[in-house]
Amino acid sequence: MYDFPIALQLYSIRDNMESDFEGTLRKVKALGYDGVEFAGLYGKSAAEVKKMCDEIGLNPLSAHVPYVELLKGDETFKTYAEIGCKYIVIPWIGEEYLAGGEKNAEFNQNIKMFSEFANKYGMKLCYHNHDFEFQTVDGEYKLDRLYSDNTAEVLLPQLDTCWVNVGGENPAEYIRKYSGRIEIVHLKDFVGSKSANMYGLIGTDKEEQKAETTQFELRPVGSGVQDFPAILEACKDVNAKWVIVEQDEPSMGKTRLECAESSINYLKSIF
């Protein structure tokens, strides 16, 4: 029914990556993943990472690279190109950089610069959303404004289907909205509803979590509320090239790697 190669966003298993980089990549391959999306290199050189991926047989598809690291310029992009990445992804940005924010013009200017560096090395620049980009400015989602302010040649969406849903949109329909502009899609599942503790669950809020923790929980793909057959049909309709599993924090009593295994087992069962 579906014929997408499946990558794993390595932030999902970051503790494992930190303690045993190569061994963890081998486990990811053994689970059945075709590729990986990096979230830091843990002190490894581009040559070391490329050699590992080549030997293991994993496609080093893409990388989430923090804004401050992208601002370092050419050397950052060269590093990921040497690994073999095809996409550089801005994983998160403060609301002041989005439409209506005081740093929005600066952000759009830097996006164009980042895109030039990416293109120089044969890569494409993407933006990975959360839910707050679905706030509106002049009746338009900040996320939509980001993509109208920057052409498809400059910036591609990497839609995170969990946060699209939490933001109030149907993920499948929103994927189709950007038909012709989407190449890689994040598959992420959850239960519960939008709550104050959500970003504590993805590591951006350092405050201690209390009673609200159970209101929202990230889950392995296929274990929550997301309609993945509909999402995958939409991915097929827009000619997406890859799907990427991400689970920021483990749940259901599983370890990070067990969650990654559960996700790919589910996807393989419906492919």
Question: Your description of this structure?
Answer:
It contains eleven helices and twelve strands. Residues 205-213 have low confidence and may be disordered. The strands form three sheets. The chain has an eight-stranded parallel β-sheet. A two-stranded antiparallel sheet has the order 6-7. The chain has helices spanning 14-19, 21-31, 46-56, 67-70, 74-83, 104-120, 142-149, 161-166, 171-177, 228-237, 256-270, and strands at residues 6-9, 35-38, 59-64, 87-90, 124-128, 136-137, 140-141, 156-158, 184-187, 189-192, 216-219, 242-245. It has a single domain (6-191, 220-270), classed as Divalent-metal-dependent TIM barrel enzymes (TIM Barrel), CATH 3.20.20.150. The relative contact order is 0.15. The chain has 271 residues and is α/β, with parallel strands linked by helices.
Helix-strand category:
alpha/beta
> Overall mean pLDDT score?
94
Share of helix, binned: 25-40%
Annotation, overall tally of beta strands: 12
Descriptive keywords:
TIM Barrel; two-stranded antiparallel ribbon; 271 residues; globular; alpha/beta; 8-stranded parallel sheet
Can you lay out the helices and strands and say which pair or pack?
Layout: E1 6-9, H1 14-19, H2 21-31, E2 35-38, H3 46-56, E3 59-64, H4 67-70, H5 74-83, E4 87-90, H6 104-120, E5 124-128, E6 136-137, E7 140-141, H7 142-149, E8 156-158, H8 161-166, H9 171-177, E9 184-187, E10 189-192, E11 216-219, H10 228-237, E12 242-245, H11 256-270
Parallel strand pairs: 1-2, 1-12, 2-3, 3-4, 4-5, 5-8, 9-12
Antiparallel strand pairs: 6-7, 10-11
Helix pairs in contact: 2-3, 3-5, 9-10
